[in-house]
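User: Design a sequence. Structure:
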């Protein structure tokens, strides 16, 4: 539940002030949670919103497509 606490609805990114490596790592961990069968949308809605926001960044979207990763 710590990741959910890092992504409150009132804040755009995990670290106040802007996008950081923490946001990228949270995307990876969110993806892994889904791969092991956790219902990430139900359990961590704020974290899920952050994940899709990170995934929408052009560089991240290119990497996800190149690696054939579907969130």
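Assistant: Done.
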């Amino acid at each position: 539940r710590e990741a959910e606490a890092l992504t409150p609805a009132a804040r755009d990114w995990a670290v106040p002030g802007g996008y950081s490596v923490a946001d990228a790592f949270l995307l990876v961990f969110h993806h892994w949670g889904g791969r092991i069968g956790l219902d990430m949308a139900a359990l961590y809605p704020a974290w899920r919103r952050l994940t899709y926001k990170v995934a929408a960044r052009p560089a991240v979207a290119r990497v996800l497509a190149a690696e054939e990763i579907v969130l």
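The mean pLDDT is 90. Helices lie at 2-6, 21-35, 40-43, 45-55, 58-66.
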